[in-house]
């Protein structure tokens, strides 16, 4: 089986993102093969050391495509991080119902349902982690029966998933109260999204509304939580609306600095613009388990805030970050040049523009621009 998935990885890295690769895994607990759809990130074949969050879609036979479509669109704009998407497919509705079987008196998996629960945590996830570069952050998504069933992982002391996309869940006995109770006990960051619609099945929606009421009343200091009720949608048509809402909610901290974030959160600060940038990327690492380089456009946003608020001393701190992020580029020396220039030390500013001229261009920083700055400062330095 390992050989099979390695061949899939090679094929996908050669063909590029968008190819759906079919795989299978034999389950000892279920005593049969289960079938998977796999889509790897665009950069998977380019960086052999990088690990990626996992998004496991139950009901992969119909949830896989809308999730992949959302990801492809978001990757284009760098709004969502690259993830490994795996769809766990059901061959028949009967198989789906059997594998999500719950004891009506205990509200817990029973029979084949218990075996299916153990298959996901004890066989499928270890198989994927062994053969793919999976980061600690793991998402599970389900609809209807599977959306309710996946919540059982929250009942464990150490849930195998960090984030849950629950689309119009069919919730067994007392689940609407058990989930908030469990969520309130977690000491690490958890993410939970649930969706319903005004045209949803009444018995399902009533429990979802009860869950939302309990979640909002609970002390959920470590939980990123959102509930959406979509207008004009049904039990089925809410799915393509809910998927992007959930992913953008979970990964909101990942997204580049937007014009709204700049205007409402950054430029209004009296100081601490560089600290804001550091905290933003620290939060990505702590919440999502992802270490990523600071985007050039985010550096430009902080530059703009510094200039607008005339907080020129912060250019020195910004240079420390930019030297770590882009050590071979002219960015750090440009920031230091701005620091000295705006503090009246034109000789040191000239020196850093000269240093920048010898380094790699980046973004709108070019050798021509550095030369222009040098020519502008030289006469002023000579006068002094």
Automatic annotation (TrEMBL):
Domain of life: Bacteria
Pfam families, per database record: Esterase (PF00756)
InterPro entries reported for this sequence: AB_hydrolase_fold, Esterase-like, Mycobacterial_A85_antigen, TPR-like_helical_dom_sf
Protein name: Esterase
């Amino acid at each position: 089986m390992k050989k099979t998935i390695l061949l899939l990885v090679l094929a996908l890295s050669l063909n590029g993102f968008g190819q759906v690769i079919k795989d299978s895994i034999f389950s000892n607990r279920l005593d049969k093969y289960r079938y998977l759809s796999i889509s790897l990130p665009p950069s998977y074949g380019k960086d052999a050391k990088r690990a990626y969050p996992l998004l496991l879609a139950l009901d992969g036979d119909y949830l896989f495509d809308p999730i992949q479509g959302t990801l492809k669109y978001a990757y284009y704009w760098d709004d969502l991080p690259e993830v490994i998407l795996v769809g766990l497919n059901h061959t028949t509705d009967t198989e789906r119902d059997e594998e999500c079987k719950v004891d009506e008196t205990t509200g817990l998996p029973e029979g084949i349902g218990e075996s299916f629960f153990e298959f996901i945590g004890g066989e499928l996830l270890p198989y994927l982690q062994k053969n793919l570069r999976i980061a600690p952050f793991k998402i599970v998504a389900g609809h209807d029966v599977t959306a309710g069933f996946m919540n059982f992982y929250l009942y464990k002391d150490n849930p195998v998933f960090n984030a849950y996309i629950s689309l119009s869940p069919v919730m067994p006995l007392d689940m609407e109260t058990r989930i908030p109770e469990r969520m309130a006990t977690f000491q690490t960051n958890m993410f939970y999204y649930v969706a319903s619609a005004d045209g949803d099945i009444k018995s399902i929606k009533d429990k979802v509304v009860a869950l939302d009421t309990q979640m909002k009343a609970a002390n959920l200091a470590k939980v990123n939580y959102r509930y959406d009720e979509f207008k004009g949608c049904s039990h089925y048509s809410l799915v393509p609306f809910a998927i992007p809402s959930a992913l953008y909610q979970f990964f909101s901290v990942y997204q580049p600095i937007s014009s709204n974030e700049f205007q409402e959160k950054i430029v209004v600060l009296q100081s601490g613009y560089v600290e804001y940038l550091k905290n933003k990327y620290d939060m990505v690492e702590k919440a999502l388990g992802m270490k990523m380089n600071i985007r050039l456009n985010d550096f430009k946003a902080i530059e703009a805030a510094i200039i607008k608020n005339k907080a020129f001393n912060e250019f020195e701190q910004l240079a420390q970050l930019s030297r770590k992020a882009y050590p071979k580029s002219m960015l750090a020396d440009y920031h230091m040049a701005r620091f000295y220039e705006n503090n009246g030390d034109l000789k040191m500013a000239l020196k850093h523009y000269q240093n920048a001229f010898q380094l790699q261009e980046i973004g709108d920083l070019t050798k021509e621009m550095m030369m222009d700055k040098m020519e502008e400062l030289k006469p002023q330095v000579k006068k002094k």
